[in-house]
Write a structure and sequence with these properties.
alpha/beta; two-stranded antiparallel sheet; 14 helices; 16 strands
Length: 360
């Protein structure tokens, strides 16, 4: 695809995002052509309660007073029992605390109901690339699944998915977990024949995403990445397309941002729960013995860019603990965060993010 900033593909893509995206991307109205009548709402609309952005997505947009998107960071004194195995009791307490703080509710099931509606089919997009030692904890998904059940999302309406069936299996997700949710690899369900065009690339979308779920809860693992700098909520959506291997040039920038701007992906993002219990701090995204640091953290947000921005700070702190250089000193600063911000996908400026820290 043509990488020229004024290519026809780029103009069509930005037009689909709305008029605000043209200004953010440095494109004038004259290069945009006819604008849509109603553009996507800006990230971080000023409100003190959970609201619904009907023009872009029906997921709740949680922001603090002053219009800042909220990211909740929950720390447990001890969330892991041994190695990568997690304590379900600790995870349950962390989930409850994070959801209550994010949604402003007094009950965890009601908090979840701010993001998903009774009867909906909910996709749980995990990261299973590095197998059990650096994958989304299945214990976390089990506890979340139980809460979804209390929010009237039956287990049969919950689908855990990722690129390959073997990644699910090797991460501890069988055909059906004890709680009854389904586990589906994109290699089983297939991808759409129709091509999704982006300014810099093109791809086919996973049918789990397009046909089997109404909304997605994004469950990434916080990891250093040897090409993109870091992997989090934004890069986790590479698992919704058929050819992410073609999108790792230039530190995956602008590919990560453009994939997340595809309407079929963007509009189904309801909630992010980032697994930072034991992040990979060097040599990622695969796992090597000794490459991870215990952090005992879960992060909660509806803004994918904001949660990755906060996650980056945590990753840098963990690296400094090992006396590893900052990512920018290694030429690995994740520039895709700023690109995603410019496309109107979220807030990439840490100073404009409301960070709530809780310990359980």
């Amino acid at each position: 695809m043509n990488r020229d900033g004024n290519s026809p593909e780029r103009r069509r893509f930005l037009q689909a995002l709305g008029a605000g995206a043209f200004a953010a991307a440095g494109c004038s109205s004259s290069c945009a052509g006819k604008q849509p009548q109603q553009s996507a709402p800006a990230t971080g609309q000023a409100t003190s309660s959970v609201t619904t952005a009907a023009t872009r997505t029906e997921a709740a947009r949680v922001v603090a007073a002053g219009g800042k998107p909220r990211v909740v960071v929950v720390k447990a004194r001890r969330a892991l029992t041994q190695g990568y195995d997690a304590d379900r009791g600790a995870l349950g307490a962390m989930l409850e605390a994070g959801l209550l703080a994010l949604a402003g509710e007094k009950d965890a099931a009601r908090a979840l109901a701010s993001y998903v509606r009774a009867g909906e089919r909910v996709g749980l997009k995990i990261n299973g690339l590095a197998a059990r030692q650096a994958a989304t904890h299945f214990e976390l998904v089990d506890e979340l699944s139980a809460l979804l059940g209390k929010a009237d999302i039956e287990p049969r309406q919950q689908i855990v998915f990722d690129r390959f069936k073997r990644d699910l299996t090797e991460s501890g997700f069988g055909a059906n977990r004890r709680d009854g949710y389904r586990c589906v690899g994109n290699d089983e369900a297939g991808h759409e024949e129709e091509i999704a065009l982006m300014p810099s690339s093109a791809s086919r979308l996973a049918r789990v995403l397009t046909r089997q779920v109404d909304g997605v809860i994004n469950l990434p693992v916080l990891k250093q990445h040897m090409l993109s700098g870091m992997t989090g909520a934004l890069k986790n959506n590479f698992g919704c397309i058929h050819n992410p291997n073609k999108m790792h040039l230039y530190k995956c920038d602008p590919y990560i941002a453009e994939v997340n701007a595809i309407p079929a992906i963007r509009d189904k993002q309801r909630l992010v729960i980032m697994d930072a219990l034991r992040p990979v701090v060097e040599g990622g995204p695969s796992y090597q013995p000794g490459a991870a640091e215990v952090a005992n953290l879960l992060l909660f947000a509806t803004d994918l860019v904001a949660i990755d921005t906060v996650g980056l700070g945590i990753l840098e702190d963990l690296r400094a603990k090992r006396r590893l250089p900052p990512l920018d000193k290694e030429g690995l600063f994740p520039t895709h965060l700023a690109t995603a911000g410019k496309l109107g996908l979220g807030e990439a400026d840490r100073a404009r993010i409301d960070i709530v820290e809780i310990e359980v």
